[in-house]
Amino acid sequence: MNKKITIIVLDGVGTGLAPDAKEFGDEGADSLGSVFKKFPDVKLPNMARLGILNMRNEFNKENHTFPDKLEGSYGRCAEKSMGKDTTIGHWEMAGIITPKPFPTYPDGFPKEIIDEFVNQTGCGVIGNKPASGTEIIMELGREHLETKKLIVYTSADSVFQIAAHDSIYPIDKLYDICEKARGILKGEHAVARVIARPFTGEYPNFKRTADRKDFSLKPTEPTMLNYVMEAGMETVGVGKIEDIFNKYGISKAIHTHGNPDCLEATLKEIQRDFSGILFVNLVDTDMVYGHRNDIEGFAKSLEATDKYIGEYMKLQGENDLLIITADHGVDPGYPGSDHTRECVPLLIYSKSIDGGKCLGTREAYTDIAATCMKYLNLDSTKINGKPFI
Question: Could you give phi then psi for residue 90, rounded to 5 degrees?
Answer without folding.
Answer: -70, -40
